[in-house]
């Protein structure tokens, strides 16, 4: 008899147990999952009605169960639903819940003999109902068992005997996007678009040793660093096949990781025989590939097909995707997540160039992970809410940019020429109202970022907690009396008072101050007269360009007195 294979369950998923009453679902759940992972319909009937068998409370119980399941899935926690779930109508909202949170739904079916289920129920004082109940549940189950995959369950495991249940084991499978144990260091490279010469120059500037170019490339870094390509390796540029060959070799040798771009996916469809219009530079890549062998084309197609939508790395501190990835999508697996990672988000409008207007998701990002992405060419790579786009339009005559992680250092090489004319200018035109509004939106403070109790991690002092009443007072002062917050780069500290003097006649005395410095290893103290009036900080810019670049202020004086 062959050994029973483990039941594969994605590490982040919604596991739905399916089986008639008495089939052993609760026992199975306790044997294979943490108590905190299991949400039992019986338990929530007891929570809302003080009676686990009160069927009249089922609607409220399942409402509470689904609410808690949603909170767990939103937090990235595997969740197990322990209920009969024998009817499609009972399973449908659970599949919808999994889709809402971009996790995979899993069905584990305990299809036990009716007599066994009834015998088990007969031995439980709280389950004294006739055999017709189990008979009806079993009939419902077997009628819909073959349709579980059509209902949306990505994994379906059926256990048909007590022996199979006893021998079952669970294998938690990490999602392909989950590389949290991979801490780098990385050199994250923006959209290459066939600019092979610039890619080689950039890799060399980053310290990589390259050999065998271009036909049999090998790359390594003496310090063990790895490249991480953000996709769009192909199209528009002069040497897309050579870029593919180098990236494929680096990924195969472990010297690089890669996520797909929308141009790469479009090329894959064409190579696999799909009806794809050769536009937006694809026609150039196809012409260049005519000189390559069928074997190379097949390998390139397999390479692109095997790329994962995005990666979460370094204990969740770094996320990379071609077009970015919102916090709710990080580490998840669904069609919607992949679409966002490839194409980003649009407003549904088109601009005067006929291109979709992109929604600035980064302006609302508040996640823990630093998100590095490309897709939307820009003249300068700038940080916004722990996100940065490093597609600096090399193929359009800009530059090829890399972000060194964890150092957060930008390295770029200039394009040797304009290889492809952009449909619209990379830099916004003077007087473009949308450019002004984009800058304005980025500088509008979100009230939820500054009110209530806040915890801020600082570089020098670690975690600093701001109490709600202090935040409210600061917000009041800032909103009424402060200058534009963009100018406030330095707030002078106030002096801390000394300990209360032991001399009963005075509140403070220099001896306590000198004692404090002495205890902290300061052997020499310079005493100066302290100016007790208000202090002023002058911020002065060299010119208007410096003001706009550093403070994102378009008009007004070249400095302020704060």
From TrEMBL:
Keyword field contains Transferase: yes
Record GO terms (molecular function): kinase activity; phosphatase activity
GO CC, one annotated term: cytoplasm
Keywords: Kinase, Transferase
Domain Polynucleotide kinase-phosphatase ligase: 473-561
Matches recorded under SUPFAM superfamilies: Metallo-dependent phosphatases (SSF56300), P-loop containing nucleoside triphosphate hydrolases (SSF52540)
Top-level taxonomic group: Bacteria
InterPro entries given in the database record: Ap4A_hydrolase, Calcineurin-like_PHP, Metallo-depent_PP-like, MPP_PrpE-like, P-loop_NTPase, PNKP_bac, PNKP_ligase_dom, Ser/Thr-sp_prot-phosphatase
Domain Calcineurin-like phosphoesterase: 185-379
The keyword rRNA processing appears for this protein: no
Protein name, entry field: Polynucleotide kinase-phosphatase
């Amino acid at each position: 008899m062959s050994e029973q294979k483990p039941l594969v369950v994605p590490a982040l998923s919604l596991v739905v147990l399916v089986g008639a009453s008495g089939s052993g679902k609760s026992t199975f759940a306790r044997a294979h999952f943490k108590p905190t992972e299991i949400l039992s319909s019986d338990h929530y009937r007891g929570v809302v009605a003080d009676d686990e068998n009160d069927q009249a409370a089922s609607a409220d119980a399942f409402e509470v169960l689904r609410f808690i399941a949603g909170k767990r899935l939103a937090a990235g926690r595997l969740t197990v639903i322990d209920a009969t779930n024998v009817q499609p109508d009972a399973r449908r909202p659970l599949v919808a819940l999994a889709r809402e949170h971009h996790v995979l739904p899993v069905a584990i079916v305990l299809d036990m003999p009716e007599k066994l289920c009834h015998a088990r129920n007969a031995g439980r004082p709280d389950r004294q109902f006739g055999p017709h109940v189990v008979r009806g549940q079993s009939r419902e189950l077997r009628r819909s068992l073959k349709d579980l995959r059509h209902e949306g369950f990505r994994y379906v495991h059926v256990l048909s005997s007590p022996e199979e249940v006893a021998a079952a084991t669970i294998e938690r499978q990490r999602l392909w996007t989950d590389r949290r144990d991979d801490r780098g260091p990385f050199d994250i490279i923006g959209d290459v678009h066939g600019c092979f010469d610039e890619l080689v120059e950039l890799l060399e500037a980053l310290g990589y040793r390259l050999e065998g170019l271009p036909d049999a490339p090998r790359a390594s870094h003496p310090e063990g660093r790895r490249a991480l390509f953000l996709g769009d390796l192909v199209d528009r540029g002069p040497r897309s096949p050579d870029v593919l060959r180098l990236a494929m070799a680096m990924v195969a040798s472990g010297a690089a990781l890669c996520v797909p771009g929308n141009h790469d996916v479009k090329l894959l469809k064409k190579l696999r025989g799909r009806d794809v219009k050769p536009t937006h530079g694809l026609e150039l890549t196809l012409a260049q590939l005519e000189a390559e062998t069928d074997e190379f084309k097949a390998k390139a197609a397999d390479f692109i097909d095997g790329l994962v939508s995005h990666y979460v790395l370094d204990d969740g501190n770094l996320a990379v995707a071609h077009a970015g990835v919102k916090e709710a999508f990080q580490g998840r697996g669904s069609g919607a997540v992949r679409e966002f990672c490839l194409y980003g988000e649009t407003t549904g409008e088109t601009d005067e160039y006929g291109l979709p207007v992109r929604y600035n998701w980064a302006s609302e990002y508040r996640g823990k992970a630093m998100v590095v992405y490309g897709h939307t060419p820009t003249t300068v790579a700038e940080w916004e809410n722990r996100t940065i786009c490093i597609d600096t339009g090399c193929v359009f005559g800009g530059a090829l940019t890399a972000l060194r992680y964890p150092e957060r250092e930008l390295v770029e090489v200039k394009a040797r020429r304009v290889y492809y004319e952009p449909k619209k200018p990379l830099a916004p035109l003077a007087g473009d109202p949308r450019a002004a509004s984009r800058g304005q939106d980025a500088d509008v403070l979100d009230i939820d970022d500054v009110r209530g109790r806040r915890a801020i991690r600082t570089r020098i002092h670690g975690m600093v907690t701001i109490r709600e009443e202090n935040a409210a007072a600061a917000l009041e002062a800032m909103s009424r009396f402060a200058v534009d917050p963009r100018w406030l780069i330095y707030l002078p500290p106030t002096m801390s008072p000394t300990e209360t003097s032991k001399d009963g006649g005075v509140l403070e005395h220099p001896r306590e101050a000198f004692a404090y410095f002495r205890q902290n290893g300061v052997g020499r103290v310079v005493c100066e007269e302290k100016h007790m009036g208000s202090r002023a900080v002058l911020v002065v810019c060299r010119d208007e360009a410096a003001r706009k670049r550093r403070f994102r202020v378009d008009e007004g004086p070249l400095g302020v007195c704060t």
